[in-house]
Amino acid sequence: MLRIWGRINSVNVKKPVWAAEELGIPFERIDAGMQYGMVDTPEYRAMNPNGRVPVLDDEGFVLWESNAMVRYLARRYGLGTLCPRDERACADADRWMDWCATTLAGSFRNVFWGMVRTAPEKRDTKAIEESRLATAALLELPEAVLAQRPYIAGESFSMGDIPLGCYVHLWLAMPIERPAHPHLSAWHARLSARPAFQKAVNTPLS
Ligand SMILES: N[C@@H](CCC(=O)N[C@@H](CS)C(=O)NCC(=O)O)C(=O)O
Hints:
Elements: E1 2-5, H1 11-23, E2 27-30, H2 42-47, E3 55-58, E4 61-64, H3 66-77, H4 87-116, H5 125-138, H6 140-146, H7 161-173, H8 182-192, H9 195-200
Bound molecules: glutathione (GSH).
Residues 10-12, 33-34, 39, 52-54, 65-67 line the site of glutathione (GSH).
């Protein structure tokens, strides 16, 4: 059976869990990371030498890096659905997944950690504000794309929507000021209507 290690309040754990739910693959999720520990044990480090969550094990095939997991599940179990068959549509989905990992994640980190994981008296308000403004500006990019099409890589839902959907859900759930992004919000509402999203992504923030 497919196994995924990681606490569900991690943005990176949500990604493969959402993909597995979308694909209807039976899987077991084992809590690990932060308050659950386990990530420093030799057994866990043998699966992921980074000591981070998530880790995936599909019948003995062990993988770390959440976007790689989403791509693996999509290619193996969702070719033509989560993973577009058309090479250009697939590259478009890949592009947004990479953008989340290389660009959005870094700008998002301080506002998320500051507002969700840090006690009010310990917050670095300058770092939070810089991160909030940088993230709001970056989200103009998918906002412009989603003005033209219903999903980030085209006419249908794909793996490209998964990492971005996880970040945007947290962005919209945080107690912060946000500029209006009407197309991003409408897309988030479309994602929220998916049962798999409700199970994997719409969970308590902490
Ligand atoms: N690039 C990695 C990042 C993994 C990562 O940083 N995970 C965080 C949670 S989002 C983590 O393991 N934090 C420490 C912990 O939960 O103990 C991925 O996408 O899988």
